What we know:
Chain A has strands spanning about 5, 10-15, 20-25, 30-35, 45-50, 55, 65-70, 75-80, 85-95, 100-105, 105-110. By secondary structure, chain A is mainly beta.
Amino acid sequence: DTAVSQTPKYLVTQMGNDKSIKCEQNLGHDTMYWYKQDSKKFLKIMFSYNNKELIINETVPNRFSPKSPDKAHLNLHINSLELGDSAVYFCASSPGRASGYTFGSGTRLTVV
Amino acid sequence: GENVEQHPSTLSVQEGDSAVIKCTYSDSASNYFPWYKQELGKRPQLIIDIRSNVGEKKDQRIAVTLNKTAKHFSLHITETQPEDSAVYFCAASLDGAGSYQLTFGKGTKLSVIP
C-alpha cells in the first residue's frame, strides 16, 4: 500500500498548456510539500501545507497554484506551462516539524 | 534562511572502501539533520538522521556525525557495495514555530566500483 502516491508519473505537454499533478498520503501526516528537482538533481522547496493551511510559499511563479482539499491531499496546478518548468516534481509528507519526509515517486514533467 | 553546502559533488570509491560526505549549514538554530539516498529514477529515501542533542549515530554500515560548534555534519559509509551507488542528499531543519522546511544540500553522486 503506497504511503505517498502521485499521479501521473509522466507528463508530456506542449508549452502554454495547463496541467495538474495530484498527491495523496495515507500516513496520517499533518504536513505536505511540493519540491522541484531540476536536471542537476537539486531539490528545491516550492510549497508546504500544514493541516490544509499554506505554510511555505517560496519564490515560485504564480502560474503554480497548490490546493489542499484535506490534509491527506495536496495537488499542484500549473498554468501556461513553459520549457523551464520541465523537471521532476516530488510530493512529500511528514508528521510534523523536524522530522523526516516520505517522498512520493515523483512526476516527470516534460514541456515541449 | 538556512543554507546547506554539500561536498563533494561526485565521489568514486572501490568496493569495500569507505565513503565520506560532508555538509555545512548556516543557521546555528538548526537541530535536525537527515540524510537521503536517491537511486536513479527513484524517490529520495531517508536512510539516517541525527538531532542536535546527539553527536553520532550509527546504523549498520552507515553513520552520521554532527559538530554543532563548527556547524557541520557528515555521512560515513563503510564497506561500500555496488548497491550503495546513488545520489545522497543532506538536509537541515529548524524545529521551531512555523518551521516545516527541510533545506537540502545539492547532492553527492556516489559511484562504487566493483
